[in-house]
Q: What sequence folds into this?
């Protein structure tokens, strides 16, 4: 009911817009109506333009009823023009206050397109995948608004919703509930974008993925999932990648246990098979499942319970193994530095791909987290206001210092130039300055150069190598040394038994044969 009221309210607001600023395109599924939005800046950098905005375009069938806990299916055609002037509800997710009052709905597989001009052709495309730990977030979040990036850097930006929490990532470790449905949603969106982006002025042969946190991990998973390789050409991974320990559950028994715990919390009987559990869950109200998923989360103290898993289909093996064997999309990448990105960056470089790395160190005047004390330093997601140019937006209140304005222009220029050409230094300049001192050098071995994202834009080498060695090597070794030794003891006893009663016996027989042969020769 909330979603219905939301639609009616949005429709009332957009009636005049459709009449005066309507912009339409024809997709493979039907006509879509968006709107032209004026974008004006009276202070440098001066901007006086308009962009074409299409919100809430369906890319898959609603994953409801029998389609719950299944891969997404291609969206049906529509006969009447689709009203794409307002966001659709976010997917059901973890209940947190900062999500506001936006409606949630299981019918949530929609995407948004911001284009400089739908009448043009071959505009480079950037596809944003939002973060939120795979349990929250939405493409409708104002923090991911694409208008500044598009108006000031001449690219198309697309964002999408995907199923979250139990709806997107519940798994039993068998064919009944394989999980990764949220990743399959992203894959379906990428298919739709590849097929239809030309109608919005985009180049279907120049599509870059970029995402932050769980979105960065998602981008990483698409890099190792062959099903997605045909739908994009470059990738930017911000604060997350396929190696992030919170972004992949490698213990399928743990994932299965969480799935059956959710079933018990929602009233499904004990002792069910996987098929019976899925049947039971499909009879439950979406809000009940969301509440039960939150209950599962409350029982977990060290990891998020509903995240991607190694399902043998989308994620075919441990990402570390896939990277080591070269089983990943060969393309240029930008990687935000953190310790789990070290392995990814090195494998990409070793395999002959162009890699750019950065380290965001600027403590902003206005934090992404309003209640965060400044003494904690630069927090997770503090780079997002600079990626999306919050301080340049006429649609929100956000204050940049003069240094921060320049830093945001530099970061947007780097990222959009990379999307255009694969080189962050070439193609466009959004502030009228050539900035030769800010050239971003490639990450190479043994140079290991990366760009420091602060107003000075310094080049750095060996950043936090001691920290990363501790997290990537020392701590895993300590875990091995202090692990439950019963399994290792059993293995050792078995090997000793084989050595004592098999290997030694064979050795004695061989030695006796040797002595006999030696005696016969004398």
A:
């Amino acid at each position: 009911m909330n979603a219905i009221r939301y639609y009616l309210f949005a429709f009332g607001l957009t009636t005049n817009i459709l009449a005066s600023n309507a912009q339409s395109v024809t997709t493979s599924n039907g006509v879509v109506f968006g709107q032209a939005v004026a974008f004006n800046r009276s202070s440098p950098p001066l901007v006086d333009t308009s962009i074409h905005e299409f919100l809430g375009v369906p890319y898959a069938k609603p994953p409801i009823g029998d389609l719950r806990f299944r891969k997404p299916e291609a969206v049906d055609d529509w006969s009447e023009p689709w009203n794409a002037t307002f966001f659709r509800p976010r997917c059901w997710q973890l209940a947190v206050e900062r999500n506001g009052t936006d409606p949630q709905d299981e019918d949530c597989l929609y995407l948004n397109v911001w284009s400089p001009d739908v009448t043009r052709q071959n505009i480079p495309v950037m596809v944003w995948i939002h973060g939120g730990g795979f349990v929250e977030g939405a493409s409708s979040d104002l923090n991911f608004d694409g208008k500044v990036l598009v108006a000031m850097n001449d690219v198309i930006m697309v964002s999408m919703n995907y199923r979250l929490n139990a709806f997107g990532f519940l798994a039993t470790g068998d064919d009944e509930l394989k999980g990764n449905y949220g990743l399959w949603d992203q894959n379906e969106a990428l298919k739709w974008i590849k097929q239809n982006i030309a109608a919005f002025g985009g180049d279907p042969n120049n599509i870059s993925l970029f995402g932050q946190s769980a979105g960065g991990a998602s981008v990483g998973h698409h890099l190792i999932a062959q099903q997605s390789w045909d739908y994009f050409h470059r990738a930017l991974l911000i604060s997350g990648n396929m190696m992030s320990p919170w972004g992949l559950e490698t213990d399928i028994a743990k994932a299965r246990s969480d799935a059956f715990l959710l079933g018990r919390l929602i009233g499904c009987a004990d002792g069910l098979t996987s098929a019976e559990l899925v049947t039971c869950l499909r009879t439950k109200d979406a809000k009940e499942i969301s509440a039960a998923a939150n209950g599962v989360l409350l029982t977990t103290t060290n990891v998020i319970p509903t995240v991607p898993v190694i399902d043998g289909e989308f994620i075919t093996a441990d990402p570390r193994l896939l990277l080591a064997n070269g089983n990943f999309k060969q393309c240029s990448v930008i990687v935000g530095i953190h310790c789990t990105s070290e392995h990814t960056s090195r494998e990409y470089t070793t395999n002959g791909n162009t890699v750019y790395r950065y380290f965001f160190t600027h403590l902003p005047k206005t934090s992404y987290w309003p209640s965060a004390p400044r003494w904690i330093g630069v927090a997770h997601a503090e780079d997002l206001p600079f990626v999306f140019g919050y301080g340049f937006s006429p649609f929100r209140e956000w204050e940049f210092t003069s240094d921060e304005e320049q830093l945001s222009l530099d970061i947007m220029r780097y990222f959009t130039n990379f999307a255009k050409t694969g080189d962050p230094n070439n193609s466009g300049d959004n502030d009228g300055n050539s900035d030769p001192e800010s050239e971003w050098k490639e990450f190479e071995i043994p140079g290991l150069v990366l760009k420091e994202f602060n107003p000075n834009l310094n080049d750095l080498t060996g950043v936090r190598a001691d920290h990363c060695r501790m997290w990537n090597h020392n701590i895993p070794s300590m875990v091995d040394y202090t692990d439950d030794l019963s399994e290792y003891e059993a293995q050792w006893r078995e090997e000793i038994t084989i050595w004592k009663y098999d290997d030694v016996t064979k050795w004695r027989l061989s030695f006796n044969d040797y002595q006999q042969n030696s005696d016969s020769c004398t």
The chain has 14 helices and 13 strands.
